[in-house]
Amino acid sequence: MSASPRTRVRVRARHRHNGWGYLFLAPWLVGFFLLVLGPMAASLALSFTDFNLFDPPKWIGLDNYRQAFFDDERFWNALRVTFTYVFASVPARLAFALAVAMLLNRGVRGLRVYRAVYYLPSLLGGSVAIAVLWRQLFGSDGLLNHFLSWFGADTGHSWIADPDTSLLTMIVLAAWQFGSPMIIFLAGLRQIPQELYEAAELDGAGPIARFRAVTLPLLSPLIFFNLLLQVIGAFQAFTPAYVVSNGTGGPSDSTLFYTLYLYEEGFTQFHMGYASALAWVLFAVIAVFSAIAFLSSKYWVHYADVRS
Fold it and tell me: Which CDD domains does the UniProt entry name for this protein (predicted)?
């Protein structure tokens, strides 16, 4: 049974409207396929080859992955350094962000100024200039040692050149860049009804109890959002370690972030096939952590519009 003329006209009109939508989407679709999906597919294919940019790729199967997991000690050290950095810097950054957001939420005068000042490190913290400044701050003749000298402490210690403290300076730099999650937390805090705090106070809840029973549950969606973004960003951290260690991951590979090791293998040693395999391992690690976050969110993330 054929469609009526009126139905055919409606279908053609709908297709014309959809055509305009696809036309506006075309630049994004072209960019996605040419600049994202295409290079990802090429990288996946190269991860199974021996490729050095100068000779044609040679198929070697899973040898790159086998080398990484069973023969490469620096691969495991880079993972250890990166996991340490992620597990230390992300909670510190989120804790500072939430603390400052709660302080600014008390109705401080000049809120816009404070908000801009605290957000500034997030804009500048990943830059080369700040990484260079960090070297000067924690060097043997840096500002930190000058401050410690006022208390009679030894001022000859270089925090960056010491393998025991170099990664700590990277963690401090990451925690200092708390402006972006702070802005998100502040927006969420301003949406929490004051009546809930007043009701909890009438029930005898103190500040800590109100924070645990009111603030954390209502902020949990934003905590989840910030946690996910910060974990992904921390796994991808590169610039501070590269600048502070002069691209070596030193001293003694103590700041050898995984991305820095990937860069060394790909653009210093020209092991492009091996670097591609390392990139896909990092992709898998981030995917696993993202999946864990989403699967666990149903136990601790509370949405106001969810009805039992």
Answer: TM_PBP2
